[in-house]
């Protein structure tokens, strides 16, 4: 397949949708792929997503949509985080005396800007048993900017990770109570990561911030994964669903730019800039989800989910480039597999109004020794609410909101340079506010 064509197609889609990314789930996974689902904290999404966004959460659910429909939505993400330095240090190489000194600089402030995360889905019932669908979204992302005077600048200053996915899917109703679905996840990824390089010093002096060098890694890739789903309805009021999304293993191709620090120790190489082609591997997690939906009466439906994330395949990021020492480097991540749990409810007020609420607990995959300032992550607790309003028989409007609390965690990450070793130490915590709206049109 022509991956250059796919890159251009997916980038064009991103420009049309105005896609951007901000880390807002455990790790850098973005759960906000449905405004209606956000209202219940995505509880029961694998079992009971009653609109076209089921393309993402469980393709088997498409057979429950009797008419062609389009679902378009967007979430406004309002993340906030801070990093409090607790004693970051720089240790020079033995050739430079081996002394350890404090790293100077500012604490972070809030490195995140407000971001918009859109999604678009369509479902076409072919007959009573077969349905086809297409989804366009961004399920993984990251964007933060600490600035060049950040005390943790040798770990990161700017980070951008953008993914854009197109998901052609199909579903088949096997029996009245069993349906299956599957799809292909065609994913484009772009990464742009920056950090500073400490200038060599002598006599135990702290690195001279004004003399810092710069390192930037930039690249992109297109690759593929798959998703599978099954839904069962053993009774008129009970729905069960199970989905599995496979890992996508990217090999990004781009360039590595290095500007050396300004220092007499470097002689003629002081301040020199060099660029070379580079490659980096990025493995995204497998995701398995189980959901249940139980209708209690004509008004109430309760929902639940258990999610599992195979983050352990994101254990490191190997990077190769001729400008790097020894032709390459490996950045340890050592993410751990995680679980997430959600409970929610829907209340049918009348034919026009549907009220929703939910809570979710989402574990972080990061560990203290390798937790990066790029992803200052902690366990997350979600509190959500939403409403669906049926404007006409063809048009539904969704509004949802959420508050996500991110637990305080410790950062103690080590970065090694040709001039010495930096240990960035600090405490980080944060929160995210989310406001989201969507329109559902049934033809």
From TrEMBL:
Compartments (UniProt record): Cell outer membrane
One function term, GO molecular function aspect: long-chain fatty acid transporting porin activity
Keyword Transcription belongs to the record: no
Keyword DNA damage: no
Keywords: Cell outer membrane, Membrane, Signal, Transmembrane, Transmembrane beta strand
Gene3D superfamilies, A to Z: Outer membrane protein transport protein (OMPP1/FadL/TodX)
Any single Gene Ontology cellular-component annotation: cell outer membrane
InterPro entries named among the record's database cross-references: OMPP1/FadL/TodX
Signal peptide: 1-25
UniProt topology in membrane: Multi-pass membrane protein
Similarity comment text for this entry: Belongs to the OmpP1/FadL family.
Official protein name in the record: Outer membrane transport family protein
